[in-house]
Amino acid sequence: DYPLRCSNSLTCVYIDVNGLHELNNTYGTMLALRTANYLNGQDIETYAKDYFAKQKLGRTDMLLVIEVNSRAWYLVYGPGLRSYADGNQALATLVRENLDDAFFDGESNQGILSLFEDLETWCKDNLPEVEPVTADHLFDCDVFLFAATKSIPPVGSDVADVRMAQFAANR
Question: Is residue 123 a contact partner of residue 19, using CB atoms and an 8 Å limit?
Answer without folding.
Answer: no
